[in-house]
From TrEMBL:
Source organism of this protein record: Enhydrobacter aerosaccus
Parts of the chain that traverse the membrane: 30-50, 57-78, 90-107, 114-133, 139-159, 166-187, 207-225, 237-256, 262-283
Residue ranges of domain EamA in the record: 7-130, 142-277
KW Nucleotide-binding (keyword) present: no
PANTHER family referenced in this protein's UniProt entry, alphabetically: AMINO-ACID METABOLITE EFFLUX PUMP-RELATED (PTHR32322:SF9), INNER MEMBRANE TRANSPORTER (PTHR32322)
Topology with respect to the bilayer: Multi-pass membrane protein
Keyword Nucleotide-binding belongs to the record: no
Record's protein name: O-acetylserine/cysteine efflux transporter
Pfam families: EamA
Segments forming a coiled coil: none
Subcellular location: Membrane
One cellular component (GO) term of this entry: membrane
Keyword field: Membrane, Transmembrane, Transmembrane helix
Length: 286
């Protein structure tokens, strides 16, 4: 990679890593449905000037429902249930190995033994992490985070139809679909006042969180990511995703004091090793 692109890749890792801690702070202000609904409502604003990317509405709906709505709603509920942001960032990385499994089951793609090995190693790490958390709520939160990773993996199958389309445009147009059902769910479960809290009871923390999760994390992040994918093979760009949980763990430890050590650190290392094995094995197929 060119030095400028290396710097851009490191910036993405930092932006997306910090995003997990920002989400945790956002859940002190918003309920999960409200947070997700407003995030995607604001995230869809570029559709006002961006043409629809040349992919089907079916693909956009799949990306919007699984990669966006499912991934983030489950993630928000997992973190609300007590899962720390650093661990959340590690567990959702299972989307990589899970995508391989789903593609083999539903798209009949051939897989390498090393890809299955990577998934197996990562799942062992999940079990170690689950043993390191305290209380049934946190163990339940681990399970919810795995549903987030699974939903992301399903969304990846729809994302394949968007190959060659501008990533930023796909992100904006797919964000157009989640807000209405999310805000309706928020109104039904949390009430109108909570749903409209960014307007009825605005706070600097709430709007700062929304700004960060939309502008740097979504718009800037996917704009840079799309640029890297157009400039280099996916096999070269993909490993950057392993830096995201490393950054997330660092920011979470510094900002919210998330403890990482002992058995938990071993579990994190095992999960990331499994994901790395899967990435290497997938890269060799390209």
């Amino acid at each position: 990679m060119k030095p400028l692109h290396v710097a851009a890749a490191l910036l993405i890792a930092a932006l997306w890593g910090l995003n997990f801690t920002v989400i945790r702070l956002g859940l002190d202000v918003f309920t999960p449905f409200t947070f997700a609904g407003w995030r995607f409502l604001l995230g869809a604003l570029p559709v006002l000037f961006l043409p629809r990317p040349p992919i089907s509405w079916r693909a956009l709906a799949g990306i919007g429902f699984f990669m966006f709505t499912g991934q983030f709603v489950f993630l928000f509920f997992a973190m609300q249930a007590g899962l720390p942001p650093g661990l959340s960032s590690v567990l959702v990385q299972l989307q990589g190995p899970l995508t391989v499994v789903l593609a083999a089951l539903f798209l009949h793609e051939r897989t390498r033994p090393a890809q299955w090995l990577g998934l197996g190693v990562a799942l062992i790490g999940v079990l170690v992490i689950a043993r390191s958390v305290e209380g049934s709520a946190n163990v339940l939160a681990v399970g919810i985070a795995l549903l987030s990773a699974l939903s992301w993996a399903v969304g990846n199958l729809f994302l394949r139809e968007a190959r060659g389309a501008p990533v930023f445009a796909v992100t904006a147009w797919a964000s157009l679909l989640p807000p209405l059902p999310l805000l309706i769910a928020a109104a039904l479960t949390d009430g109108i006042d909570a749903t409209l809290s960014p307007i009825l009871a605005p706070s600097w923390q709430g709007w700062l969180v929304l700004f960060y999760t939309v502008v740097p994390a979504m718009w800037l992040g996917y704009l840079i990511w799309g640029t890297l994918l157009r400039s280099y093979p996916a096999a070269k760009v993909g490993p950057v995703s392993l830096l995201v949980p490393c950054c997330a763990l660092f920011f979470a430890s510094q900002i919210v004091g998330e403890p990482i050590g002992g058995v938990r650190l071993i579990g994190v290392a095992i999960v990331l090793a499994g994901v790395a094995i899967g990435i290497v094995a997938s890269a060799r197929r390209l």
